[in-house]
Design brief:
Layout: H1 16-21, H2 24-86
Length: 95
Amino acid sequence: MAAQPRRGAKPDSSSIVARITSFPIVSRGKQAACDAAFVSKKLLRSTGKAAWIAGTTFLILVVPLVIAMDREQAVSDMELQQASLLGAPPAANRP
C-alpha cells in the first residue's frame, strides 16, 4: 500500500532536501569540499613527481657509489687474504 498524505495537510511543493541544499552554508561547504579535493589532487601529483625525482637521483648517483665501495672492499679483503697465504705479517691498520 502506498503512503497517503494526511487529511488536511497541504501538499509540499518542495522537499526538505531541496530546501536544505538552497542554504548558503551548504553551497559554501560544497565549494570548500571541491577546493580541498583540488588541492589534495595537486599535492598528490607533485608528491609523486618529487618521489620520482628522488628515486631516479638515488639510482643514478648513490647505487654506483655503493657498488664501487663494495668492489674496493672486496679487493682489499682479497689482498689481505693473499698476503696471509704468502706468509706476510698482517697489517695492523690498513686503510
